[in-house]
Amino acid sequence: MVRVPALPLSSSQKQARLLGILLILSFLTYAFFLNPDWRSPSWAFPDLLNVVGIPCLFCGGTRATHFILHGEFQRALYFNWIAFPALVAAVSLVLVMSLEIGRRRALLPSVRLRTSQWVALGALAALLWGHHVYDALYSPKPELLNREGLLFSFSSSTAQGETSK
Fold it and tell me: Has residue 2 been placed in a domain?
């Protein structure tokens, strides 16, 4: 196994890590204190759900994180199972960045992905997103659907046509 030497952190790298830690902890604090029954107005977050009516890959993720942090794992799974690995990754990232700042050295080498790796990640994201949309349409999960969206009527009529066969 090849060991990558730990390089000293520059001041800009230290600032980037501090900002990353701050952003992750801010999100976790927001998710912890979130009222999960709160409904945002459709203009508040211009995401895929509000524009086209079907959920994005991360729709329900904040509520799922809220329920994980409160120990309600079944409810977290209902909203978005991706919150589980995302939370583990976020906490791990905060720990690594904190260690890097404390030791003043980079612990992980910078990673550059090849085009084929980006394509594979994109395909995986598309597959997961397709499953999330399918789950929202067929479960049904009304919190993850916007009946006024552009594609909702098309996707729901397709779903009804398949169930009537």
Answer: no
The CA distance from 51 to 127, in Å, is 21
Domain count, the chain: 1
Read off the pTM. Answer: 0.72
Calculate the alpha carbon distances from 158 to 52, 54, 131, 137, 150 in Å. 15, 13, 15, 10, 14
**What would the pLDDT profile of 80-107 be if each residue is shown by its tens digit?**
888 999 999 999 999 999 999 998 888 8
Closest among 3, 58, 61, 66 to 29, alpha carbons compared: 66
Report if residue 45 sits inside a domain. yes
Structural domain boundaries, residue 124? 11-155
Residue 103 lies in a domain: yes
Residue 66 lies in a domain: yes
Query: From CA 110, how far away is CA 127, in angstroms rounded?
Result: 27
Q: Which residues contact 110 (CB under 8 A, 6 or more apart)?
A: none
pLDDT at 116: 92
